[in-house]
Task: inverse folding
């Protein structure tokens, strides 16, 4: 089991961690484990640029509404900014900055030639017709045109946006530039330059991380029980792959609650959130549980794959799993992380576990630039290879420095970024 030797004081979550608070804390914490120039850390605390734009939209009734859009670009020392665009009422500049910092670490730990970006529009996507979403997206692409591009900043889908949104975004950008430029965004449908395997990639990488963790701690996947909170894109793909590889998935949940069968569920027959939203409780199973109870189940591997901030100071003592693998972004609060560390429960962090999404986005970008599509087999093979390399880099830090998996992942990421900054220098 990995653990840091120092005992830390555990504070309750004063409020659930915001993305920016978490990102800054993680940077400061990683900085204590790496010999990095203070100037580099200081530079990394700030985003390079935060673009705020007004996005006017003609509504179906002919009225005009103006929405606010953002694009935060954190750091591009290793390559173009990369990260999602979300449509959600609570999108704001600070959230975009925090999430863009997160993307910087995620790209670096996977050794992808990208830095972190994140953006979006403060809008409830459910309040928009398809036509309104298309018009809003096209105008947003135009407003951001001067700060994005395949060699500058490459957006992707996120909450409230999808492959179709990326198709409109790419079309609007290309029309204005006068040529088809598929590499301006990733997560597109394969027919216009999207990559096969992109959609299931975060779930696949989460499953690979779980498999490697089980092996690292000396267990056999065939004897491993798994609980997955959130049966959406990430959770369902991870659960199905782990089942294929021999694990027993005993519990899964959606927003309404969980089903539990100690002998194992047939997860391939349970519809995912995409196939049929909120259908988990309609399946036959011996027991139902709440979303709080699934987190406390006595299983070998717990995969929180729904939303952030679900493992908190209130329930971290009751997490009975031997290993936690973060499928969602930020499911464990800082305070909970400290408790799990003291209890010697390893947590495989989100920036490693669910990084399959951005990794296959990188493959998509390569395919777009080279105008050559890869087969699904090639995508999955290369993803496996990238994940194993990243796993090995992080594992080495865990073994050599006796760090937690999260600290080790940040150390790998920060070392790469700092080295690139030191080598390029500060101009002027
Ligand atoms: P999704 O919408 O496909 O599925 C989410 C699932 O979680 C659904 O089953 C939903 O019913 C359930 N859920 C929602 N709120 C819940 C709650 N409060 N408690 C319990 N269950 C709840 O979402 P997704 O794409 O699978 O994303 C899940 C998480 O993974 C998010 O944190 C997301 O940021 C992260 N993530 C997604 C991707 C991606 O490309 N899809 C990549 C990296 C990380």
Result:
């Amino acid at each position: 089991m990995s653990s840091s030797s120092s005992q830390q004081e555990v504070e309750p979550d004063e409020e659930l961690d915001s993305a920016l608070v978490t990102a800054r804390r993680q940077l400061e914490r990683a900085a204590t484990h790496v010999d990095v120039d203070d100037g580099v850390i200081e530079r990394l605390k700030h985003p390079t640029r935060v673009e705020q734009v007004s996005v006017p939209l003609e509504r179906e009734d002919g009225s005009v509404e103006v929405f606010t859009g953002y694009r935060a670009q954190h750091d591009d020392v290793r390559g173009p900014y990369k990260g999602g665009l979300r449509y959600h009422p609570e999108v704001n500049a600070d959230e975009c900055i925090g999430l863009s910092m997160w993307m910087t670490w995620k790209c670096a730990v996977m050794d992808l030639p990208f830095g972190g970006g994140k953006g979006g529009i403060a809008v409830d996507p459910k309040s928009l017709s398809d036509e309104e979403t298309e018009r809003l997206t096209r105008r947003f692409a135009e407003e951001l045109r001067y700060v994005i591009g395949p060699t500058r900043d490459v957006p992707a889908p996120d909450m409230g946006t999808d492959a179709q949104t990326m198709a409109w975004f790419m079309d609007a950008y290309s029309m204005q530039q006068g040529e088809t430029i598929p590499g301006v965004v990733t997560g597109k449908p394969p027919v216009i330059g999207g990559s096969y395997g992109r959609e299931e990639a975060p779930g696949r990488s989460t499953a690979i991380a779980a498999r490697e963790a089980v092996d690292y701690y000396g267990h056999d996947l065939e004897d491993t029980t798994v609980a997955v909170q959130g049966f959406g894109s990430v959770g369902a793909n991870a659960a199905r792959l782990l089942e294929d590889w021999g694990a027993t998935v005993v519990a899964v949940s959606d927003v309404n609650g969980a089903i539990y069968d100690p002998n194992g569920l047939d997860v391939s027959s349970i519809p995912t959130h995409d196939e049929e939203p909120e259908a988990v409780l309609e399946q036959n199973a011996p027991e139902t549980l709440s979303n709080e109870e699934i987190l406390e189940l006595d299983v070998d591997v717990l995969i929180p794959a729904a939303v952030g901030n679900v493992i908190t100071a209130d329930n971290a003592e009751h997490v009975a799993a031997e290993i936690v693998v973060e499928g969602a972004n930020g499911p464990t609060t800082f305070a909970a992380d400290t408790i799990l560390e003291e209890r010697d429960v390893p947590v495989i962090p989100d920036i490693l576990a669910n990084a399959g999404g951005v990794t296959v986005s990188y493959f998509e970008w390569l395919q777009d630039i080279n105008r050559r599509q890869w087969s699904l087999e090639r995508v999955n093979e290369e993803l496996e290879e990238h994940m194993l390399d990243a796993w090995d880099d992080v594992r080495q830090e865990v073994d050599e420095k006796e760090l937690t998996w999260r600290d080790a992942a940040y150390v790998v990421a920060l070392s790469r970024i700092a080295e690139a900054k030191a080598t390029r220098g500060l101009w002027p």
Notes: Residues 376-401 form the longest helix (26 residues).
